Structures are given as structure tokens and as C-alpha cells.
TrEMBL record:
Entry-linked PROSITE patterns: PROKAR_LIPOPROTEIN
Keyword Disulfide bond in record: no
Alphabetically ordered keywords of this record: Cell outer membrane, Membrane, Signal
Domain SusD-like N-terminal: 104-224
InterPro entries in UniProt: SusD-like_N, SusD_RagB_dom, TPR-like_helical_dom_sf
Localization per record: Cell outer membrane
Name assigned to this protein: RagB/SusD family nutrient uptake outer membrane protein
Keyword Protein transport annotated: no
Main localization of the protein described in the UniProt heading: membrane
Family according to the record: Belongs to the SusD family.
Length: 565
């Protein structure tokens, strides 16, 4: 199996290097660097292939990064702020959330690099020598998928942006903000035009390339968003349902039998449930999209961990990870969304509940006030999180510390394990190498159910949701997990998506799409309840974009800031 790892962004103004990387499933890199090349290099077969590959690299700026996570999971009904302080404006919706925040500018600029690379490949494909028409057709289709993907991210986060569908070769200050109608029209057109040219299979032979299934999954999500927008149409939900059903029915995807196995690092990441993955590597040179904005690979392993490494019997190690304490699950997430721990395996398989001693000895600095000291041998349980309150006597009877909900704080809380990366080279190493699963089949089923609920087909929606819930059940509990048509409500779907997709860069976007971001954050997230308002359904436009745009007759930028910022 060959995996195409697409590294540094192709830049039409200054093409510095292209990395040609063929990677086997054993992560063996064979790279060739070409530098000091002219703009006409792209009309060669090698240059055309390099540019097509490089267009994918901007995905690494958003998926599997603190940057993308801050803009999708911070400040929701499911996650509040942990102890560490980076980018807390996204949690609190306060004066820290402004257009000069570095990650806002980085996402904007990197996605536009990706868009311009796509534009260049699309426009120049016809003139490329030494490449078959079939390959050109496929690469152009991939570029349209990526261009739509990048614009959809920008549109969801910022509203209408500068819609550039042709290659920008020279610097320009001429910009304008597209309308919602223009944005949806361009995104849908690109995706629908991509379908005939993309590989009609679950996974590309050149693993990592976009397929028809990936485009249909994204179309389902786009139509769900459009259905609640200012330009909604009567058939948006039916189109979303059709595209989601196509993904489920036409390519052989299957939900894995075990929820936890979806997130197994290494070969497990290429599995029957993955519709589209953003690829990372163990090589520091090729694990980035741009050295100035993304040098940390897939670094989500850093961001969900509690501060286990200063607790009795523990020191930091590679297995338990380097905890940055950025996100703490809300009480609503733990006690309502993950309330069922008897039938549903997802609480147990989503959060770590046990730590084993890697620092034996006797310790008196314990957080568990049921005991004055603890003594551990190597491999003894040091910390256990039962997920429910225990009495002082129950905790005192255990030889380890018991972290109950009343003891949770900004540094100690249940730790998400989906993105842990024990294959890092040492305990302080930040870059991660695991692929990021951007689209997976469980999400497709839940999108289908959402469309079916909105269409009044609640029995069908229950059947779609039950596919996901049966897989999530503990053995022998499958029937107890099934719901009926009467249960198939939007409120239930919101919680089901939380159980299934916690931390997977969907929640802020989901809440915005449903029109409930402000309401649910006010109800369930005390960090942000006092500050959040309708303004926050959009992010601030990067100040660099405003400053670099033309000025009108009144001296103001022709590219205005979003209201309220």
C-alpha cells in the first residue's frame, strides 16, 4: 500500500521546493527535494504532480492542531477551559478573541495558500505535458474537492470571504466579501463537479487522496449547513440525506465492531470506517504544512490531558503523554451526555480512568483527602476515576487516590484518549505522527439521521442512530442501546453526536449549524455563559486581511470586520 504524504505548500509566486514522498505502511520515506525552479515547472509532469500533492498540505494547518481544535471544540457545551492559558478567548468569548490572534491569521492565510494552489492546478492542467487525460481529470477533481473544503471551513468560521476561483499570480489589495448565496453556490458547484472525476471507491489506491465518497460526505455536511442558513432551500435536507446514504451504501464502508478500535494508532487508522483522513508522518521535515505555522504534526495528544505527572506515584512518560490541560469536559458532558455507563461503552473508551505507577515510593502530597499518604510499587494503580461520587470511606478503603467529580478542578479531570500518541520519540516531544480522521462513517450515519429528523422521517432516523448505538454498546447490551422513533429528536441527536464525536473538531460547527451555540453555551458552560452572544457565531476577520485590502472613499477597508468585533 502506498501513502502519499503531501508536505509544504505550493506557492505560485515563489516556488521554493517540492517534496516527492512515497510512503509505505511502515512509514518509510523516500523524498526528493527540488529547489530554485521556475514558474513553468508546474507544466511538467513532475511539477504538476508536486503541486497537486502540495494542495493537500493545508489540511494539516487545521486538522489535528491546536489551531483547528481551538476553533472547533473550545467554548462549547462539552468543553470548557483547563488550567493552561493559550487561546482562552475561544473558551471565554471575551476581549482576547480579536482579529490579531495568531491562530486566526494562520488558518486564514494557510487555507488561502491551499486554495490558490488548487486554482493553479485546475487552470494549468490542460497545458501539462506527459500526464494522461485520466490523471489530469482526477487531479482537477481532487483540487475542486479541496478548494470547496477549504472554503467551507473559512465560510463556517468567518462568514462570506474573498471568493477567488482563479489563480492569483501577483499581489493584490482588491478584495471583497462574497454573499452567503455566492459561497454556497461555489462550494456546492466544486463538490458536485468533482464527483465524476474522483476515484469511485472507499479508499484511493494512493491512500490519502480524496475520493467520491469523501466528496459526498462533505456535500451532506454542506447541505445540512445550508438548510439552516439565510439561503436555505426546501430540498436541502433531502439532498443531504441522499449524499449521506450514498456514502453508507455504495462503497463498502463498515462501522468497526469496537468503538475504541477506531482510534488505534498506526495501521488501525486505515480502517473500514474512515472516509477521509489527513495524513501525518514521523518525519519532522514532511510533517508540516508550513514551518512558520505548523511544525507540530498532529498535536492533539497534548491538549486533553490532566496533570497526572505531578501526582503521587507518577512522572511524565510517553505512554500517558505530555498534558497541556487545555480542555476540561463540562459537567453536562460527563453527567448528561455520558450518563449511561452500563450499556454504552463510550464513556469507558473515550476517557482514561486508571493510571499505573511509574514512580514508586511513599508520598504524602495526595489530592485525595481520604488518606494522608500512599505507597506504590511499580505498576500499582495510583489514580482511579470512577466517574461518580464515592464516600470518604469508600475512597479510604482503596490503596490509591480516587478522583471523584467533587475533586475535579482545572488541572484534574477525565482525560480524552482518542488522540494519545505513545509512538512519540520521548516524553517531551510535541509533534505527533498519527493520521487525523477527518470524516468517518459514524458521522455520516448521524448526519443522515439529522436530515431524516428534519424531514419528519423519525423511524428512519432512529434506524440510522441505532447503527451507531449498537456498535457503541457493551457486549450483550445492544438491544438496550436501541431507540425508537419517538426518541429520535434533535435534542437526542445533539447528545448522540457528543457521545460519538467528542473532541473530533465538530462541536462548535454543529452548534452553529443548529442555531443553538449561544443557548447551549449559556446553559452548560459557566466559563462562557456571561460573555457569549450572537456575534460569536462568527470569528473575527484577521486584522491582516482588513489592513491589506483596499480602502474606500471613507478611508475604511473594503473588507469589513464581522459585527461585534
Amino acid at each position: 500500500m502506498t501513502r502519499t504524504y503531501l508536505s509544504k505548500s505550493f506557492k505560485t509566486l515563489s516556488i521554493l521546493a517540492f517534496l516527492f514522498i512515497g510512503q509505505s505502511c511502515k512509514d518509510l520515506l523516500d523524498e526528493k527535494v527540488i529547489s530554485s525552479i521556475g514558474d513553468d515547472y508546474m507544466t511538467t509532469a513532475a511539477g504538476f504532480n508536486s503541486a497537486s500533492n502540495a494542495a493537500y498540505s493545508s489540511l494539516r494547518n487545521f486538522y489535528g492542531t491546536e489551531r483547528g481544535l481551538s476553533m472547533t471544540e473550545y467554548g462549547t457545551d462539552l468543553y470548557s477551559a483547563g488550567a493552561d492559558g493559550s487561546f482562552k478567548g475561544f473558551h471565554f468569548y471575551d476581549s482576547q478573541l480579536i482579529g490579531t490572534v495568531s491562530i486566526i491569521q494562520e488558518v486564514w492565510e494557510e487555507l488561502y495558500k491551499g486554495i490558490n494552489t488548487c486554482n493553479a492546478v485546475i487552470e494549468r492542467a490542460a497545458g501539462v505535458a506527459g500526464v494522461t487525460d485520466a490523471v489530469k481529470t482526477q487531479r482537477v477533481a481532487e483540487m475542486k474537492f479541496l478548494r470547496a473544503h477549504y472554503y467551507f471551513i473559512l465560510f463556517q468560521e468567518f462568514g462570506g470571504v474573498d471568493l477567488r476561483l482563479t489563480e492569483t499570480i501577483l499581489p493584490t489589495k482588491t478584495t471583497k466579501r462574497a454573499s452567503d448565496a455566492e459561497m454556497y453556490a461555489a462550494i456546492i458547484k466544486d463538490l458536485e463537479e468533482s464527483l465524476p472525476g474522483l476515484e469511485n471507491k472507499a479508499k484511493s489506491a494512493d491512500y490519502g487522496r480524496a475520493t467520491k465518497a469523501a466528496a459526498e460526505h462533505l456535500l451532506a455536511k454542506v447541505y445540512l449547513a445550508k438548510a439552516t442558513s439565510s439561503v436555505k432551500a426546501a430540498d436541502d435536507y433531502s439532498k443531504a440525506a441522499t449524499y449521506a446514504q450514498n456514502v453508507i451504501s455504495n462503497y463498502g464502508f463498515k462501522l468497526l465492531p469496537d468503538f475504541a478500535s477506531v482510534f488505534v494508532q498506526g495501521a488501525g487508522e486505515i480502517n473500514d470506517e474512515v472516509v477521509f483522513a489527513v495524513q501525518y508522518t514521523t518525519d519532522p521535515l514532511t510533517n508540516i504544512s508550513d514551518p512558520t505555522t505548523n511544525g507540530n504534526g498532529n498535536n492533539l495528544h497534548l491538549l486533553f490531558g490532566m496533570q497526572y505527572d505531578v501526582q503521587a506515584g507518577m512522572v511524565r512518560d510517553v505512554f500517558y503523554g505530555r498534558p497541556f490541560k487545555r480542555l476540561k469536559p463540562t459537567t453536562y458532558a460527563l453527567e448528561t451526555v455520558f450518563k449511561d455507563r452500563v450499556n454504552d461503552s463510550r464513556y469507558k473508551k473515550t476517557f482514561r480512568d486508571t493510571w499505573l505507577s511509574n514512580n514508586p515510593g511513599t508520598f504524602t502530597n495526595v489530592f485525595d483527602n481520604s488518606k494522608k499518604s500512599v505507597t506504590y510499587k511499580a505498576g500499582d494503580t495510583t489514580i482511579f476515576i470512577p466517574g461518580v461520587e464515592w464516600t470518604l470511606a469508600q475512597r479510604a478503603a482503596k490503596p490509591y487516590q480516587v478522583l471523584v467529580p467533587s475533586l475535579y478542578n482545572l488541572s484534574l479531570f477525565p482525560t480524552l484518549v482518542k488522540f494519545m500518541d505513545p509512538l512519540r520519540i520521548d516524553k517531551t516531544y510535541e509533534p505527533g505522527s498519527r493520521d487525523y480522521l477527518a470524516f468517518r462513517l459514524a458521522d455520516t450515519y448521524l448526519m443522515l439521521a439529522e436530515a431524516q429528523i428534519k424531514l419528519g422521517k423519525t423511524a428512519d432516523a432512529a434506524a440510522s442512530i441505532n447503527m451507531v448505538r449498537r456498535r457503541a454498546a457493551f457486549a450483550g447490551k445492544e438491544s438496550a442501546m436501541e431507540i425508537t422513533a419517538a426518541d429520535a429528536t434533535m435534542e437526542f441527536l445533539m447528545e448522540e453526536r457528543g457521545r460519538e464525536l467528542l473532541g473530533e473538531q465538530t462541536r462548535w460547527l454543529d452548534l452553529k449549524r443548529w442555531g443553538v451555540l449561544v443557548d447551549r453555551v449559556k446553559k452548560y458552560n459557566s466559563d462562557a455563559a456571561n460573555n457569549i452572544k450572537e456575534t460569536h457565531n462568527l470569528r473575527p476577520i484577521p486584522q491582516t486581511q482588513i489592513d491589506r485590502s483596499d480602502k474606500g472613499t471613507d478611508g475604511a477597508s473594503v473588507f469589513p470586520q464581522n459585527p461585534g468585533y
